[in-house]
Write a structure and sequence with these properties.
Elements: H1 2-18, H2 80-105, H3 119-128, E1 134-136, H4 142-147, H5 152-160, H6 194-207, E2 217-222, H7 229-240, E3 245-251, E4 254-255, E5 258-259, E6 279-284, H8 288-305, E7 309-314, H9 333-341, H10 345-355, H11 361-383, H12 404-420, H13 425-432, H14 439-443
Parallel strand pairs: 1-2, 2-3, 3-7, 6-7
Antiparallel strand pairs: 4-5
Bound molecules: thiamine diphosphate (TPP) and magnesium ion.
Magnesium ion (MG) binds at residues 222-224, 252, 254-255.
């Protein structure tokens, strides 16, 4: 009884402290609620990025479909040598891609992915970044590495996984590059894992007095990957713990067979930036000068404000998703043929260069000839090159000392090599492909 009375008295006191006499209530109809600066309004106003009249976030463009400057557009700062370097890199990409695609078809490598249709997005963005900005790619961004001077030898060595693959030592699938030297973080196939990691890398840059205000972390991801929770985790992280993280969404219209229209109902990926308080721009990903200008400005903001910026580059994936895909099973061949012609990123930029007398037909032929020869030469050199020593398989799986389970696997393979290595033909021929032919593992006394 006593406890119930005490409780009633406690509740009465609490109520008195909350409920004010009406004379003390403010007559101010507007103002702000304590946790927001949102203005008060008597009108009920639902907002959406999908508007009744279909208005969408505009797409920034500099060149029209035939390479002429758009009315009111400003050219990015660009001298002839730089403009030509951009073009040469754009032309190189499909030459490498076509060859490697065929090489995969011949069974010489296990897998390949092209950047067909996204040459302007890749090269324009790479050209806008500093070469020591950190890149966290999804898998289609080989062009950014080539821009930085990674070179065809390294590309071939990685794709063939041979003993010159210093990038991933034959441990990764083709095109899953990694390079400390070129500030390119290791590609991992699980989608969007690179996005929160990039916000972390951006934060690390911000904490480093030698890099703060100088570099950013640039993360590439597809519009499909942006459906992953990791995309939102990364955006939120860069928004609440600000860091110079440049989010580059490559909206190429497809996530394998799923069209972008089935990935989101809102206005693309760009519509999500303002939700995180992140400066956002949508660019024409087929217009290399728009990408160059857009990413340059995004990078400037990133570094100056120490905050995340989002750029959505709109393009069309002209190639199949990868060599494991046949896209004509889910999209009309004619659509692809049309998109190859309309707004073609390379042809459009070439027209711009020709109009300025920075390029001509003769140079075009000379360039294509040279690039094809270079690519073939690198391919021939690496095609038959031996792979890493078998022993290498167990090295560098983790940092530091080799853990017991890896040691156990190494011993198991040693035992199998002793048993079958010399006597069973499939093993004999497989071992010949490796430097040392497995002998180094048998001789290894480290365990
Ligand atoms: C977490 C996860 N789910 C599914 C996959 C299989 N997968 C690989 S690539 C891909 C499509 C990604 O599309 P997008 O992000 O738009 O990039 P794009 O290939 O168009 O460049 C899918 C579903 C995966 N690798 N990881
Ligand atoms: Mg996509």
């Amino acid at each position: 009884m006593l406890r119930a009375a005490l409780l009633r008295s406690h509740i009465r006191k609490q109520c008195r402290s909350y409920v004010r006499p009406t004379s003390q209530v403010s007559a101010e109809p507007y103002g702000h609620l304590p946790t927001s600066q949102s203005p008060i309004t008597p009108r009920m106003n639902f907002i959406n990025s999908v508007t009744p009249d279909g208005t969408q976030i505009p797409t920034y463009r500099v060149l029209d479909g035939v390479g002429q400057l758009l009315d009111g557009a400003e050219l990015p700062e660009l001298d002839e040598a730089f403009a030509r370097k951009i073009y040469e890199n754009m032309v190189q990409l499909p030459i490498v891609d076509n060859l490697m695609n065929n090489v995969q078809r011949q069974g010489k490598i296990s897998f390949y992915m092209t950047a067909h249709g996204e040459e302007a997005t890749m090269i324009g963005s790479a050209a806008a970044l500093a070469n020591d900005d950190e890149i966290l790619g999804q898998y289609r961004e080989m062009g950014t590495l080539l821009w930085r001077g990674f070179g065809l030898d390294n590309v071939m060595a990685q794709c063939f996984g041979n003993h010159q693959d210093t990038s991933t030592k034959g441990k990764q699938m083709p095109v899953h590059f990694s390079s400390k030297e070129y500030h390119f973080h290791t590609i991992s196939s699980p989608l969007a894992t690179q996005v929160p990691q990039a916000a972390g890398v951006g934060y690390a840059i911000k904490r480093d007095p030698n890099r703060r205000g100088k570099n950013c972390a640039a993360v590439y991801f597809g519009e499909g990957a942006a459906s992953e929770g990791d995309f939102h985790a990364g955006m939120l992280l860069a928004s609440t713990i600000p860091s110079p993280t440049l989010f580059i969404a490559r909206n190429n219209g497809f996530a394998i067979s799923t069209p972008a229209s089935e990935q989101y109902h809102g206005d693309g990926i760009a519509a999500r930036g303002p939700g995180y308080g992140i400066d956002t721009l949508r660019v024409d990903g087929n217009d290399v000068l728009a990408v160059l200008s857009g990413i340059r400005e995004a990078r400037r903001r990133c570094i100056e404000q120490g905050r995340g910026v989002l750029v959505e580059a709109m393009s069309y994936r002209v190639g199949h998703h990868s060599t494991s895909d046949d896209s004509f099973a889910y999209r009309p061949r004619q659509e692809v043929e049309d998109r190859k012609r309309i707004d073609n990123p390379i042809a459009r930029y070439r027209k711009f260069l020709e109009a300025r007398k920075w390029w001509d037909e003769e140079e075009e032929e000379e360039l294509k000839d040279r690039l094809k020869k270079d690519v073939m030469k690198a391919f021939k050199k690496h095609e038959t090159m031996q792979r890493h020593e078998v022993k290498e398989m167990f090295e560098d799986v983790y940092g530091g000392e080799m853990p017991w389970n890896i040691k156990e696997q190494r011993e198991e393979l040693k035992a199998l090599l002793k048993k079958y290595g010399k006597d069973w033909e499939p093993w004999r021929s497989e071992l010949k492909k490796h430097k040392g032919e497995g002998k180094e593992l048998l001789e290894d006394k480290s365990s």
